[in-house]
Specification:
Layout: H1 3-16, E1 24-28, E2 35-41, E3 44-50, H2 61-74, E4 83-87, E5 92-96, E6 101-102, H3 110-124, H4 145-159, H5 166-197, E7 212-214, E8 223-225, E9 231-233, E10 240-242, H6 244-253, H7 264-272, H8 278-300, H9 306-314, H10 321-341
Antiparallel strand pairs: 1-2, 2-3, 3-5, 4-5, 6-8, 7-10, 8-9
Helix pairs in contact: 4-5, 4-8, 5-8, 5-10, 6-7, 6-8, 8-10
Amino acid sequence: MTPETLRRVAAALMGQAGLRGEMKIESLAGGANNQVFRLSAGGLSALLKAYFQHPDDPRNRLETEYRFLTFAWRSGVHRVPQPLACDPEHRVALYEYVEGRPIAPGEVSQGLVRQALDFYHELNGHRREADAADLPLASEAYFTLAAHLRGVEERVLRLAKLDAAGDVGREAARFVGEELTEAWARVATATRHGVRQLGLQLEQEIAPEARCLSPSDFGFHNAILEPGGRLRFVDFEYAGWDDPAKLVCDFFCQEAVPVPAAHHEWFAGEVVRDLPAPGAQRERIGLLLPVYRIKWCCILLNDFLPLARDRRRFTQSAEGEQARRATQLDKARRALQRAART
């Protein structure tokens, strides 16, 4: 999108949202998947988001996020930005601009985890409402243990075809071929053994009433702490109906703002407390946590895949690509080491 088109589309959306006056556009750093801008007019601000689209990733990020946030706001759940206006043709949407700061690694406390749980419960308090049924499945929403295993298997196999150019690329290829692949084989075998020991079925699908509404990429890396101490959660491009075990595992496996393992037991218990057969849900979480540790090692290596490269170019964050890849490879190594110790 050209700067002229961006300004025209932004002005139209600001008008739809009732924000008048001379408009100022400020590009914001930090968008990993999309371009984000702060729009100011008449003493008020809003956030403009231009969504990435790629032939190899046909997900409609704008539609998913805007629908989910609209549902949340109509349900009285305001721990998320208010959706203001959208332009599907140009893949652009306007949201409330949330004032605050990101959560720093090492800052996660029981109080912040409690706020995350409160958000989850507020959202799922409306899961039986009629319009909730119209929400899509979350990205990579798997409802059988076998499907979870297949999803991670596919990620590991994709990495076997990573860009091995340069010293960092060759080292990443060696890490995937010799360490990650072997670790995944051990985890997959142990998980299948655990399933048999517990008397579960790999292909048994969890019932619709045992599913949850999930931000999908749920964690403190997607949260803003307001000056008054309230958390607001952002980035719902992958949101929808999901397996609660996936929500818990992702929450504790994401690497950007780690959640201390000391909070795992009570967090998992709180997530499943109002779902059918909470004991069985906890067993599934225990089985899948090692699987998701491998998944997040794979996610850390996405920069070595073509899709991530094109996404970085879209967000204009491709500078220092080799240094970023080296950093991500180091993070993946350390994540795999931690996974081996747990």
